[in-house]
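Recall that a protein's primary structure is simply its ordered list of amino acids. Everything else, from secondary elements to tertiary packing, is in principle encoded there. The following example makes that idea concrete.
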Amino acid sequence: MSLKKTLGKIHLWLGLSSGLVVFIVAVTGCIYAFQAEIKDLTYSHFFVEPQDSPVLPPSQISKIAQEAFPEGHLHAVLYPTAERSAQGIFFSYGEGFDHYQIAYINPYSGELIELKDEYADFFRIVLDGHFYLWLPPEVGQPVVASFTLIFLVMVLTGLVLWWPKKKNYKQAFSIKWNARWRRKNYDLHQVLGFYVMTFALVFAITGLVWGFIWFRDGYYALTSGGKQFIEYYTPLSDSTQTYNADIPVLDQVWVKMNAEYPDAEYIEVHPPELAHGAIAANANPDASTYWKIDYRYFDQYTMEELSVDHMWGRVDEASVADKLQKMNYDIHVGAIGGLPGKVLAFFLSAIIASLPVTGFLIWWGRKYKAKKPTAKSSSSKAKLASV
């Protein structure tokens, strides 16, 4: 059997086994592409009337949020731009009481606008399908990652199968719209598959960075010249010191961040996760992406800034490998290219979702054609019947 026939068999059976998963992941990716824009149009609790008065500090916002959800673990307080509500973010996972709630609060008046269960949000449900196929994360995540790896192999084998002979170049790049449906379906699969191939590889690789630790570590080593990926950690404060200022330390960190990032589109401060942990804070100059975020850490007793070795630090101190990791989400969803990038990602995901369908129809059509009796065999059967 030739190499091309062998790869054809591999492509076929991998496609049949992974088609449904690829379809679900691609369709949910399509739906999720414009989740931020759709939420801004439909979620009134995102917005408040801007005022000239100062906003409430994190200590007061967190108190209002905690009163609204007393059993929750307060993860962060987030301040977007002046026309948006502040957020008291509650999050805990794997500690017996998994929850993800956000208290949307008017930062000027302190009014609780809405306490929303983010796990019940439509787009969160879509995202769970994209990440886990709506299975428990410990089951769904490796399943999706494994099929993403299979999809990567399919893209590469598909390129080999598509590669045309010199005389067939025009045919390989165009769809014959006036042909019979089987030919059109074949062209839709082969030609569109070629056009989205590069982007499909990008989607697959950025997805696998989250899917497998070994893939992330290998990707990081490749892009960093052999360095080891360092997991996130929060530095510890100097517990021998005592904080004596009148203003709460969380508020003081927030004031400092506002002074240093006056044009940020959001600033977020995190209460210490550990008894002697640092206070984490971040500022994002562009709320439509994540890779430009500056992450900072402050001793909760002395306000001294603490450094970290992992990628979640200041952007201007990040290596090329760290910046690629920071960009991973924005590349995956197309946000790295702004709204045009999201539009492109939407249509590319739609085309990728069509490939398992057109591929299945090619296989089914060939199977049906193989079973269909020819004119010669039909006449032979007729003769036998008349004997």
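Residues 180 and 186 are 10 Å apart (CA to CA). The first helix runs from residue 3 to 32.
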